[in-house]
Amino acid sequence: MIHVEWFVGQVALALENAEMFQDLEQAFHGLRELDRMKSNFLATVSHELRTPLTAINGYVQLMLAHRIGFVSPGQKEVLERIHAHSDLLTGKVNDLIEIAEMDSGHAAEAELDPVDPLNAVMAILPRVESRRAHKGVTIEPVVISPIPLIQANKCALERIFFHLLDNAIKFGQPHGQVWIKFEVLAGELLVRFIDNGIGISHGQLQHIFDTFYQIDNQLTRNYEGWGSGSR
Question: Euclidean distance between the first and final Cα of the chain, in Å?
Fold first, then answer.
């Protein structure tokens, strides 16, 4: 009789575990569907935003080039600010599109080619010039070892470098300095972005790759951004 009761108890426990597993599986699929809907929503909204931003940038550039009419020095200053902020917003929209594509699994597989990392850094300097000039930050490449070509996706590498450099300037001290050091160690190229900014506490380092994570909401509200980049 004891063996029968034990067997019945084990069967009941197995059925209960099976039901729990089924519930967890359904919850998991529900969360995946919600995540897919979020990614689709982000992609749709971002694409819708990019179209008017492109038009704004185009018209501002026409006005700055005096293609529509005379622009006074005061108007030129205002238009340049509009252009700078529009470029900044376009970059954030592109970040959202890229995140949505990666989350949905629709991101194209990156093709790797020989890339010069120093050229990749030089290519992004114009994109950070407005912020750099506003804060009076000096950017200095430091080449410690001859820089070899590396196998990388040029666009992806430039995007990574842009976020690192943009954050170094954004969170750095006014009239500070950013060093970009290139050094070959043990046969591998090490590229370091070094600044004299506020830094990240050791306890927060584990979160730096979490999407939309802000290190300290109260602190980072002094800086624009939503955590879609490298910080």
Answer: 65
E strand intervals along the chain: 113-115, 138-143, 150-152, 177-185, 188-195
- Tokens 């000039």 correspond to 133
* Tokens linked to 172: 């750095």
Residue 103 above 70 pLDDT? no
Mean pLDDT for all residues in the chain: 78
Which pair of tokens denotes residue 211? 């999407």
Is the separation of the CB atoms in 158 and 185 below 8 Å?
no
Residue type, 137: V
Q: Name residue 83's amino acid.
A: H
CA–CA dist 29, 19 (Å, integer): 15
Tokens read off for 83: 């252009």
Stretch 95-111: mean pLDDT, rounded? 66
Asked whether 225 and 170 are in contact (CB, 8 A), the reply is: yes
Mean pLDDT check: name the lowest of 89-93, 124-128, 143-147, 189-193.
89-93
Q: In the sheet that 138-143 helps form, which strands lie side by side, from edge to edge?
A: 138-143, 177-185, 188-195
* Per-residue pLDDT at 112 exceeds 60: yes
Residues ≥6 apart with Cβ < 8 Å to 182: 117, 118, 141, 142, 143, 144, 145, 147, 189, 190, 191
